[in-house]
Amino acid sequence: MRYVTVLSCIVLSIAGAGCSWLDDRPAPYTSAPFTAQAHSGSPRLTTARDTLGAAVNDFFWVKSTPKQPIEFPHNTHVEKGLACTEYCHEAVTKGPQAGLPSVNTCLICHAAIATDRPRIQQITQMSEKGIDLSWQRVYGFAPAAHVRFNHAPHIRANVECATCHGDIAHQTVAQRNVDHNMGFCVTCHREKHAPNDCLTCHY
Fold first, then answer.
1. Are residues 155 and 201 in the same domain?
2. Cα–Cα distance between 161 and 87 in angstroms, integer?
3. What is the pLDDT of residues 56-89, one digit of tens each?
4. Following DSSP, what letter does each residue of 59-99 receive, concatenated?
5. In terms of domains, do 6 and 106 share one?
6. Dist. CA 89–CA 98, nearest whole Å
């Protein structure tokens, strides 16, 4: 029965209708976005879509944690006192992208530190062959969301990395453990009195 109800709500969302059992609005039919429960249990704002397939894709869109070319132990580097923005993500204060370290960036330290470790030897060999690290993005937004995210203003507003990336300081490999849905972003903007108009984030 619940499956049928959820399916009905998805169909209603295509027509711009809402589901009162999901968002506690008194009127079951509205053109406004409705709040649903995403895969992680956090609120997700969903808007009307042209087709059922598009609505289902948007509602259940999950980006799994990708496999990286080399295991990067975030916890080890944080324990050594390295800040996220100091070497590895230095572009984060300057523009939209945080930036990812190249093999040569790694070798600024590791040309002399822990050179006997297999991972460091692998990086050294890659550098000698002119091969760079093909890091895979851990976080991203559903294409249908049309979100334009800029790291720089969030850094200037003193938003901690953990707010959006979770407890990365204690992870050996970066995991996708925060659901970046509309409800998550809107809630944070409201709490911090940040701009909440559509064009702040969407294009």
1. yes
2. 15
3. 555 555 556 788 898 898 999 988 888 888 888 9
4. HS---PPPPPSS---HHHHHHTT--TTTTTTGGGGTSS---
5. no
6. 5
Q: Are residues 30 and 69 in the same domain?
A: no
Amino acid 11: pLDDT? 42
Domain housing 78: 64-100+140-203
Helix (H) or strand (E) holding 37: strand 34-37
In this predicted model, what pLDDT tens digit does every residue of 146-163 receive, in sequence order?
898 899 899 999 999 899
Q: What is the pLDDT of residues 111-136, one digit of tens each?
A: 999 999 999 999 999 999 999 999 98
Asked whether the CA dihedral 126, 128, 130, 132 is positive or negative, the reply is: positive
Q: Closest Cα partner for 159 from 186, 188, 200, 137?
A: 188
Is there a single domain that holds both residue 70 and residue 110?
Answer: no
In this structure, are strands 34-37 and 43-46 parallel, antiparallel, or unpaired? antiparallel
156 and 87 in a common domain: yes
Q: Structurally, how many domains does the chain consist of?
A: 3
